[in-house]
Design goal:
Elements (H helix, E strand, L loop, with lengths): L2 H15 L18 H13 L1 E5 L8 H12 L2 E5 L5 H10 L11 E5 L3 H6 L3 E2 L21 E13 L22 E3 L7 H13 L8 H12 L3 E5 L2 H5 L5 E5 H11 L5 E4 L7 E9 L5 H11 L2 H9 L3 E2 L2 H6 L5 H5 L15 H19 L5
Parallel strand pairs: 1-2, 6-7, 6-8
Antiparallel strand pairs: 3-10, 4-10, 5-8, 5-9, 5-10, 5-11
Helix pairs in contact: 2-10, 6-7, 6-14, 7-14
């Protein structure tokens, strides 16, 4: 046998007797842009399988799309409790279900800004800082992550243009005789935060301040005395029928009404020239959440660019709005459907203390000063 062939044969024989090298394990697949910590959270949430929400109407800030998007993206079920509940109801739901891990116990809540201190003082929520924490303005979040602002709106005029010849552009316009029997609030100012903030806004437009809402009460006293004020709790139906063709409302609710009515009748949403007041809502995770990882994943979803833009599509300014604008990530078609950004330049943000002080002054003073029984 030729020497070279012999060497080759011997090499093959030796190789055949040598144990095979262990197979190299393929690396775990990595989702682009996703950290290992996030992937771990997703796995934990999927193990829990469900998220329980409360007080999230699908037409409020486009929550319908947010809920469906979350379910589709992560394959979790969403148990929706009482979509029409108020902030106070949400807090009571946590209290009532401290020892209940069943379907009536909410994992997450979305409540008015003024509820923040109560949530912490009564130990009703647990801390969690989302990955976009640093882009949430400092004055709209609890420093330890127990709650944080999610979106805000400003008080606007929702006007039925088919019933109102001249659309009012500022608070002072509402005092004109042509608006007799046409102006209403979207709630009872003795109980409704939206209505109370309307009085607060009127105060700012009439010589008041964030620490003095008395001019707002005087404004509505005058509006009522002239017969312009309609003492009913206004809503989309009363606007559409012309019963309350001019109402004060959060801009995102007014924009939702405009979209829903689709020109029948024609609705105009006006950001007043003065007295532009912003109202912030906050997110928090129940301290007794049955599905804490699903709750944290929900927060990550809402505070991602994707979630923030979903709120913006619903007419709500997400809390990270300035960051989104700075990075130019808001789709042009979304921006086109919103009132011009410069109209919000004068918006003021009361502190929690100022909101609570105003609430007390308005609740205590409405009957005495204005004397209109809103129902």
């Amino acid at each position: 046998m030729h020497l070279s062939i012999l060497i080759t044969v011997l090499a093959l024989l030796i190789a055949g007797c040598t144990p095979a090298a262990p197979a190299v394990k393929s690396p775990e697949p990595v989702v682009s842009g996703m950290t290992a910590e996030m992937m771990k959270l997703i796995d934990a949430a999927k193990t829990e399988g469900t998220l329980t929400t409360i007080a999230l109407p699908h037409d409020w800030c486009n929550y319908g799309e947010a809920i469906e998007g979350f379910k589709t993206k992560y394959g979790l079920k969403v148990n929706e409790l009482n979509p029409d509940a108020g902030s106070g109801d949400e807090v009571e739901a946590i209290k009532a279900n401290k020892d209940n891990k069943g379907p009536q116990a909410p994992d997450v809540i979305d409540v008015g800004f003024g509820f923040g201190p109560q949530l912490v003082d009564e130990k009703l929520v647990q801390p969690y800082k989302v990955s976009t924490w640093d882009t949430i303005p400092a004055d709209t979040k609890n420093v330890d992550g127990y709650w944080y602002g999610d979106y805000y709106g400003v008080l606007a005029f929702e006007v039925n243009k088919d019933a109102v010849k001249n659309v009012p552009q500022d608070w002072a316009d509402l005092l004109k005789p042509e608006y007799k029997g046409q102006v209403a609030l979207s709630g009872d100012p003795r109980a409704s935060a939206q209505a109370q903030m309307s009085v607060f806004a009127a105060a700012l437009a009439n010589g008041g301040s964030l620490d003095n809402v008395a001019p707002g009460l005087e404004f509505f006293k005058q509006l009522n005395a002239m017969g312009n004020f309609v003492p009913v709790i206004a809503k989309q139906a009363t606007v559409a029928k012309g019963e309350t063709p001019v109402i004060t409302r959060w801009d995102y609710n007014a924009l939702a009404d405009k979209a829903a009515l689709a020109g029948n009748p024609n609705i105009e949403v006006v950001i007043p020239k003065t007295g532009v007041i912003a109202g912030v809502y906050i997110q928090a995770i129940s301290a007794y959440a049955p599905h804490p990882n699903a709750a944290k994943l929900w927060m990550e979803y809402l505070y991602s660019d994707e979630g923030q833009i979903i709120w913006l599509k619903g007419g709500c300014h997400p809390i990270r709005y300035n960051d989104l604008v700075k990075r130019n990530v808001i789709p042009a078609e979304v921006t086109a459907k919103l009132p011009a950004a410069e109209l919000y330049a004068k918006a003021v943000f009361p502190t929690i203390e100022q909101i609570n002080n105003a609430k007390k002054a308005i609740t205590d003073g409405w009957d005495k000063v204005v004397g209109a029984d809103v129902k």
